[in-house]
Automatic annotation (TrEMBL):
It comes from the Eukaryota. This is Carboxypeptidase. One of its GO terms (molecular function) is serine-type carboxypeptidase activity. Its EC number is 3.4.16.-. Residues 1-22 form the signal peptide. The keyword Protease applies.
Amino acid sequence: MGPTRQCHSLLLILLAAAAAAASPEDGTPLRLPVSERPVYTQLPRSAAADLIRALNLQPRDASVSRRDGDEDVPAGTLVERPINLASMATGSAGGAPSVGDLGHHAGYYRLPNTHDARMFYLFFESRGSKDDPVVIWLTGGPGCSSELALFYENGPFHIADNMSLVWNDFGWDQESNLIYVDQPTGTGFSYSSDSRDIRHNEANISNDLYDFLQAFFIEHPTFAKNDFYITGESYAGHYIPAFASRVYTGNKNNDGVHINLKGFAIGNGLTDPAIQYKAYTDYSLDMGLITKSQFNRINKIVPTCEFATKFCGTSGTVSCLGAYFVCNLIFSSIKMIIGNKNVGWNTKYTTNSFFQCFEMS
């Protein structure tokens, strides 16, 4: 049996063991949650290409001249266009700024040291002062588009029920020049035609982000002197420390444009699943959401989660998918008991999907 088949077999064994451990006392089999998102026939690269065309960001614009016979010359080219999302937004209580007062941009950066990877980003200049800090936002996942945060969390706009844009009175662009990046390659509208460009560790992801920042500040030199902060949530608990370290190292070595890094912020970060997932049951018991009996039953999954997470750290690929599903059985088992109780949410969130990312394309 080859390594791939061994990983698949281990994945099935882990899932079966964890599901059996989590089964209710009455013998009702535990159903593994499935995604309720519609299945999209459009491939990510096709969806990205549609957006590029809509923004007049054709892939050929992001290409550089290559010497004949040398296909490995890095690109490192940034293509950016102004966008007018504000023209679709209704006013806020404090009065909405006009399109002419704003600098909203969308672009692609053709990543160097890749075969064909392009990183998509959106940049919103501050509604306050151009001297406000530059803040980059990284949504987690891994693999969640940063448009999730842009339109549902801290961006300039929210999407109303009628699908129109509404100014967000609490958008971070009130006090900062805000960058949203779809990363790593394959996330959201960032894509490559070559599967070898898919990233598998924080070091490569951080290098890509650092290369992007260098190109960004060359394109926008007036912002290079501003204070710079790295922010994000969830799995960005992995990205952000690595990215901050890469920026620090680049500054120390005088690599390119000096980035005025002042700090970073991680919201609800996932940094160590083996430790954090087992805290779900402790919290749920302390809050009276589950009984002691339910606590003991669900906690039987924890050793399998810890083992699967450790195995993922040494093996990667399919084993990490197994760890993801096994550890999420802890969360989904609690959710099956308590239903839709979401602290801080004003509306019901009805999906029982394992997958945390929304379809943004």
